[in-house]
Structure formats: C-alpha cells, structure tokens
Amino acid sequence: MLPSLFDSGTLPLLEKMAMFGERRQQVLAQNIAHAGTPNYHMQDLDVEGFQQALRDAVQFQQRSARTGPAATEAETKPAALRTLFSEDLFQARDGRQRNITFQDGNNRSIEYQVAEMQKNNMMQRFAIELMTSQMNMLQTAISERV
Length: 146
What we know:
The chain has 146 residues and is mostly helical.
C-alpha cells in the first residue's frame, strides 16, 4: 500500500527533479570554482535530455492512468522511471561553448554560470515545495483532519 502511494502520481517525478537540481548545482558550483584553472572547460548536465525524460515520464503516467491500475503496471512504473531517468542524465559532460576561449584555454563565463545556478535553484525549490505540499496533504489525510 505505502510503496504504491509513493511510486504513483507526481512524487517520483518531483524526486527526480530535486535530485537533478542538486547534482546540477554541484556541477555549476564546480565550474565557478575552476574559473581560473587553465584548460578547464565548463561542464553541465544534459538539461534538454532531462526535460525530455520528464515529458516522457508524464506521458507514461497519463497512459497508465487511462488504461487502469493493473498489478503488473504498478510493478513496472518504478522500472520505467529508472529507464527514462538513466544515470547518464546525472553525469557531467563538457558544456556547450557559449563564449570565446581565453588564452589559458579556459572557456569561463561566471555570469552565465551564476544565472544558470539561479534558474536551477528555482526549479529545485519548486520541486521540493510541491513534494512538501503533497506530503502535508498525505499527513493530513492520515491524521483524519479536515
């Protein structure tokens, strides 16, 4: 009963959003820390790939809701989410070069990194706020308060 509560709806997707936001924040902070390191190339996560996986997961959940809750479907939802949100999405890779490369071989852009950190922070806070709200509703239902 409890696993199906936490594996259905938006909670698993919000969890993935929060995890992605945390990992991306680490990568962006590392970029700022290495801004003066010769030959360092800025890294990032695959944001577009993550957004596509999120869209695919929402569509999968919508299809599952239309076809009805079958026992086998409930068992495959977590597996499908693991497939959609592969570990590759959470691995840092060389980011696109958005500016010139400096003489020391670095392609730093601190302003861009800080702006991306702010956008990422807002996305992560959004996911956490929604998770908190859903958990509060669940707690209210369990305690039978109106």
